[in-house]
Amino acid sequence: MKRSRVRLFKALVSCILLYTAIIYWKKDEQRNINFEAKTHMYDPDILLHEAMKSRALNGIIVLSSVDSGYLEMAVNLYATSFTRFNIENYLFVGSDPDICAALSGLRIACHSYIHDPDGRTPSNYNTKAFKRKTQLKTKIVLEALRIGLKALITDLDIVFLKNPLPQFTCERCDIELSDDVGKGNSGFYFARPAPGAVELHERTWNMSFTRPNLTNQQALNPIVSRMRAAGRLTVVDLDKEMYPNGRVYFTEGRRMFKGDNPCPDCIIVHNNWIVSLAAKIYRFKESGLWKNDADKYFSSEDRKYLTFDLPKDFGETKTGRWERMALGNAFIIGDILNRTVILPRFHCYSCKLEMCKMPDARCHLGISYKMEKFDVQLKGRYRESVFLSHDMVPLGIKKSLSPVYFIESGTTVDEPPAPPDGVQKVIPNNESGVSVRDIKRRFGNRTESVLRFHSLYAGLKYDECDKDMLNKLKLAFGRSDFLQHP
Ligand SMILES: *[C@@H]1O[C@H](CO)[C@@H](O)[C@H](O)[C@H]1NC(C)=O
Ligand SMILES: *[C@@H]1O[C@H](CO)[C@@H](O)[C@H](O)[C@H]1NC(C)=O
Ligand SMILES: *[C@@H]1O[C@H](CO)[C@@H](O)[C@H](O)[C@H]1NC(C)=O
Ligand SMILES: *[C@@H]1O[C@H](CO)[C@@H](O)[C@H](O)[C@H]1NC(C)=O
Ligand SMILES: *[C@@H]1O[C@H](CO)[C@@H](O)[C@H](O)[C@H]1NC(C)=O
User: Fold this and answer.
1) Are residues 77 and 140 part of one domain?
2) Nucleotide-diphospho-sugar transferase domain spans which residues (predicted)?
């Protein structure tokens, strides 16, 4: 008895000792990493300088920091903005081992700089990895200024609506800075290689070590204020109507779908003030600001699509449920027929925004559902509601439309909409809904690119449907607000 207690005591003591040792060792390791990173990161980067010099035109370079998680966005910025305005003096600066290879494969200029351990996954706002990645922007601009270049730094979730470069005309200014709801936005600004701008970037970069829990914007803004107050920095505050952030452009500007409330004065759109990469991409797509044609997203000649509408308002309590069921039905039918679902426009019952209060307002999927969750299950199987109006979709697809079908079913929906004249009725031969075989028989032969349904509230015979698909649908829908939190 006594001996075992002694043994227990000994074991306990060695455990504690080991634990302390590990903690000290870990701390030491962290110190070393920080120290090495720090000394290394003050060095001017000769290779980066060379890359910048070879890309700059008239002493100006357009810079973007990028990692693999944001590849899709980087390609979109390139396609919507750099290509469109013939901006050739850009350089993507890559922070992981793979991104520059991916971009170079698309003939997009990229310099491989620092390897971030979280580079391969997209980081959402306010995470630790996100903060660390943002700090790199400061360093990149600093390096450009050190070699005498003027630099426009642009985040990847921006689209240029005009060429911004001719707009920066204040020759005596250090920086021209866009607005982020009352603060400077470090995601889009123009800097000149003047002493004030260099000092600003050095101080901000230095702060990234003393205050690693800040984003570069949080670090930059107080320093801008202090230097401005001391007369050491001359700043142009870019007009927030011309350089709108996500809140100004989408929310206050009441822009839900492509073509809503055109903005002739806008020079850029910054797709921020929304959580998650998936939601940003989807919002760009619905707004007509997406031109990334990877895997022939738009330009495929042989891909087949399915459309349906949500014509009926079932009232506040029921509409959401029936619309979600109709969307699920569309994905099941799409899966059976190997057709990509083109999303409908939804009623706006769950939307509290001003623009949703109009009587005929319609909402996109991201207004009520979490796009990140949705994409885990269904990315690649759907297209945004404005898809068929995109310039890059072949005319042959746009013109190849089936008759409009209506699947009858009296059992699942209370008061199903009456099909208007001219639609082709499909009457299921089982009261619980249309069967997989019926769907194949009725539509499997259709050669049109776009198979059209009047609506899809009707029930299917779910007991026959593919279990994987049903499971995906179970997991895909998470309620959310338009900013995608919580
Ligand atoms: C930033 O830190 C470096 C290294 O400690 C120092 O040499 C430099 O003077 C600092 N710059 C500013 C503007 O504080
Ligand atoms: C960042 O860390 C400092 C201490 O280093 C702390 O005072 C501050 O509250 C932290 N800020 C955030 C946003 O976590
Ligand atoms: C399904 O459609 C895709 C896209 O058009 C096509 O590449 C694929 O071959 C089709 N699959 C089958 C089994 O037909
Ligand atoms: C309809 O389908 C159900 C379930 O598969 C089946 O039990 C029932 O017999 C079918 N009814 C008819 C009329 O075929
Ligand atoms: C295709 O159409 C033909 C002729 O109408 C029909 O005999 C055949 O069963 C259909 N096949 C499929 C898979 O729907």
Assistant:
1) yes
2) 87-284
Q: Indicate whether residue 445 lines ligand 5 (CB < 6 A).
A: yes
Please report which confidence band the pLDDT of residue 134 belongs to, taking 50, 70 and 90 as the band edges: confident
Q: Is residue 214 part of a domain?
A: yes
Map residue 42 onto helix, strand or coil.
helix
For residue 148, give the CATH number of its domain: 3.90.550.10
In this predicted model, what pLDDT tens digit does every residue of 222-251 receive, in sequence order?
999 999 999 999 999 999 999 999 999 999
- Single-letter code of the amino acid located at 363: C
Please tell me the residue having the least CA distance from ligand 5 atom 2.
445
Q: Ligand 2 centroid to 274 CA: how many Å? A: 23
**Distance separating alpha carbons of residues 472 and 430, to the nearest angstrom:** 25
Closest ligand to the CA of 199: 1
> Which residues are 160's β-sheet partners?
268
* In a shared domain, residues 242 and 303: no
Atom of ligand 5 nearest to the CA of 443: 14
Tokens matching residue 49: 């300088």
- Do 232 and 300 lie in one domain? The reply is no
Contact 243, 179 (CB under 8 A): yes
The residue among 342, 322, 331, 329 whose CA lies nearest residue 434 is 329
Q: In what order do the strands lie in the sheet with 150-154?
A: 110-112, 90-94, 60-66, 150-154, 184-191, 175-179, 235-237
CB distance 67 to 116 below 8 Å: yes
Say how many Å lie between the CA of residue 447 and the centre of ligand 5: 12
Residue 66: pLDDT over 50 = yes
Are 449 and 308 in a shared domain? yes
| Shortest-distance Cα residue to atom 7 of ligand 5 | 441
Least confident of 82-96, 248-262, 317-331, 411-425: 411-425
Strand ranges, E, within 115-183:
150-154, 158-160, 175-179
pTM of the model: 0.88
Most confidently predicted of 122-131, 256-265, 416-425, 457-466: 256-265
The reply to whether ligand 2 has any atom less than 6 angstroms from the CB of 213 is yes
Residue 80 scores a pLDDT above 70: yes
Q: Both 348 and 413 in a single domain?
A: yes
pLDDT at 40 over 60: no
Structure tokens at 116: 């971030």
Which residue's CA is minimally distant from atom 1 of ligand 4? 430
Looking at residue 196, its pLDDT comes to: 98
- Residue 165 is part of which domain span? 46-247
